[in-house]
């Protein structure tokens, strides 16, 4: 992986603190917008008691409140931030094609100083695609952190986990990728989905849902 430029003056903390990721926010953060991976009930930010707006969302998704819609493989801009909706890139970045179907949208978000990759939900066959996409971005744009969901035990075939694997297979595979990214100098954030991640570099909390 390409090392990040030394002229980045700040880490990704300010960038992450300014965004609500689905239903998660960084502890003590002050989000000015929300970005949506998909509209499943346990991710939809409009179900939260407090939801940052505008909502950055895939142009093919239903409109929910005040939104900024971004077409796949294009970029939207808000408050000095660029929101790239990665779609076909996820397929093209894989040197050996392993995954063509994805559970949720992947977003590359950057300011002038920092960049992050946000993956709010995923299935087991997608995990090998993460390093390939990270390498692709890192060769072209600033990348400081990757945000990944943190799971507990999941029984196959949920999340397309192959039969015969143990319930912790998904969590262990993501933890392995997270550690590999950290070894390359990236920070990694674990979105508790539903359990906290021991490997996270940031503390995230789930926002309270409407009563």
Question: What are the defining features of this structure?
Answer:
single chain; 211 residues; alpha/beta; Metallo-beta-lactamase, Chain A; 6-stranded mixed beta sheet; 4-stranded parallel beta sheet; 12 strands; 25% strand; disordered N terminus
Spell out the blueprint of helices and strands.
Layout: H1 13-17, E1 19-21, E2 24-26, E3 33-35, E4 55-58, E5 67-70, E6 75-78, E7 81-86, H2 88-92, E8 106-110, E9 115-119, H3 129-138, E10 145-150, H4 169-183, E11 187-192, E12 204-206
Parallel strand pairs: 1-3, 3-4, 4-5, 9-10, 10-11
Antiparallel strand pairs: 2-12, 6-7, 7-8, 8-9
The total count of helices amounts to 4
Total count of strands:
12
Q: What strand order characterises the main sheet?
A: 6-7-8-9-10-11
Poorly predicted ranges: 1-9
Instruction: Tell me the fraction of residues in β-strands, as a range.
Output: 15-25%
Measured as a percent range, the helix fraction is 10-25%
Rg over C-alpha atoms, rounded to the nearest angstrom: 16 Å
What overall geometry do the principal axes of the alpha carbons give? globular
Rounded average pLDDT: 92
Query: Cα distance, first to last residue?
Result: 45 Å
Tell me, what is the CATH class? Alpha Beta
- The class by helix and strand makeup works out as alpha/beta
Count up the domains: 1
The SSE string, one letter per element, is HEEEEEEEHEEHEHEE
Main sheet characteristics: 6 strands, mixed
CATH fold label: Metallo-beta-lactamase, Chain A
CATH architectural label: 4-Layer Sandwich
């Amino acid at each position: 992986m390409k090392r990040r430029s030394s002229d980045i003056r700040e880490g990704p903390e300010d960038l992450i603190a300014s965004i609500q990721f689905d239903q998660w926010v960084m502890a003590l953060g002050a989000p000015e917008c929300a970005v949506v991976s998909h509209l499943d009930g346990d991710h939809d930010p409009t179900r939260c008691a407090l939801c940052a707006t505008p909502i950055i969302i895939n142009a093919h998704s239903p409109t929910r409140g005040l939104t900024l819609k971004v077409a796949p493989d294009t970029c939207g801009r808000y408050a000095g931030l660029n929101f790239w909706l990665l779609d076909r890139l996820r397929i093209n970045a894989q040197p050996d094609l392993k995954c063509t179907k994805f559970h949720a949208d992947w977003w590359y978000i950057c300011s002038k100083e920092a960049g992050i990759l946000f993956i709010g939900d995923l299935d087991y066959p997608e995990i090998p695609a993460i390093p390939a996409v990270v390498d692709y971005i890192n060769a072209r744009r600033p990348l400081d952190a990757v945000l990944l969901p943190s799971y507990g035990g999941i029984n196959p075939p949920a999340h397309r986990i192959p039969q015969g694997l143990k319930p912790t297979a998904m969590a262990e595979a993501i933890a392995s990728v997270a550690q590999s990214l950290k070894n390359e100098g990236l920070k990694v954030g674990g979105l508790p989905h539903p359990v906290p991640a021991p490997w996270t570099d940031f503390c995230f909390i789930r926002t309270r849902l409407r009563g």
